[in-house]
Amino acid sequence: MNYDVRYAVSPQETKAMDTEALRKNFLIEEVFKADEIQLTYTHYDRYIAGGTMPVQKSVTLESIDPLKASYFLERREMGIINIGGTGTIVADGTAYELQNKEALYLGKGTKEVVFSSADAQNPAKFYINSAPAHHAYPCKKVTRNEAEVVELGSLETANARTITKLLIAGVIETCQLQMGMTELKTGSVWNTMPAHSHDRRMEVYLYFDVPEGQSVSHFMGEPTETRHIWMQNEQAVISPPWSIHAGSGTSNYTFIWGMAGENLDYGDMDIRKITELR
């Protein structure tokens, strides 16, 4: 179990950050490491993002010191999306097999969680998000066919994309955690454009399916004080509640969005006009 802690910073502090400081505060450079669990605990809504890639052995989820808990999900819920080969998660004795781009929700009170891969040559890559929880909802696997799917954007504006809402109200019951996946179509590079912010929720993006030699520039900051962070394949970025979150790649790509905060209303967002961005 490896983890680091990120403290919340204000818009005023962020304005003064150089490239190194922006990356240190918001970028999660290494999400997947063989046979280990990598986690980042952020003080924005006490959110945790990270991942595990079991290769030679199974990996067991354990508590970390910031939680002050006897087991990880004692007071938390968790969402997991597999972006690698087939893998299995055993939660309190129940086995859930996850294919590529399938999701699993684990409710508060789940004590033992073990991750494994079906094939060491093509290991599972379990992307993990977790938020504090006040109620114990049932564990549930969600396939792509069970998700809510929305088509947005157009090729003319280079933002044609498919949004797959996996762990979200209407599909599954959660306390505050929501997760889904956005896939850019060939020829499209812009995500979450027009940009928006939601002061009632924070968010984390994991960028993946980025072709070799290509990158994504993630945009954050206040609408009139934007900043950017260049990101590589399978890296994640923390987006504060006061910040926009959008990106543009040198190729099409996929990203997972996860969020938590005051409500579960996916449509509760403040749209920022493209012409107002600075």
TrEMBL record:
Cofactor(s) the record lists: Zn(2+)
Q: Which residues bind Zn(2+)?
A: H196, H198, E203, H245
- Main enzyme class: isomerase
Q: Which reaction does it catalyse?
A: 5-dehydro-4-deoxy-D-glucuronate = 3-deoxy-D-glycero-2,5-hexodiulosonate
One of the record's GO molecular function terms:
4-deoxy-L-threo-5-hexosulose-uronate ketol-isomerase activity
Give the cofactor note text.
Binds 1 zinc ion per subunit.
List the keywords (alphabetical): Isomerase, Metal-binding, Zinc
Return the InterPro entries for the record.
KduI (IPR007045), KduI/IolB_isomerase (IPR021120), KduI_N (IPR027449), RmlC-like_jellyroll (IPR014710), RmlC_Cupin_sf (IPR011051)
Pathway(s) per entry: Glycan metabolism; pectin degradation; 2-dehydro-3-deoxy-D-gluconate from pectin: step 4/5
Show the CDD domains listed in the entry: cupin_KduI_C, cupin_KduI_N
Q: What does this protein do?
A: Catalyzes the isomerization of 5-dehydro-4-deoxy-D-glucuronate to 3-deoxy-D-glycero-2,5-hexodiulosonate.
Q: Which family does it belong to?
A: Belongs to the KduI family.
Under what name is this protein listed? 4-deoxy-L-threo-5-hexosulose-uronate ketol-isomerase
Organism listed in the record? Pontibacter silvestris
- What is this protein's gene name? kduI
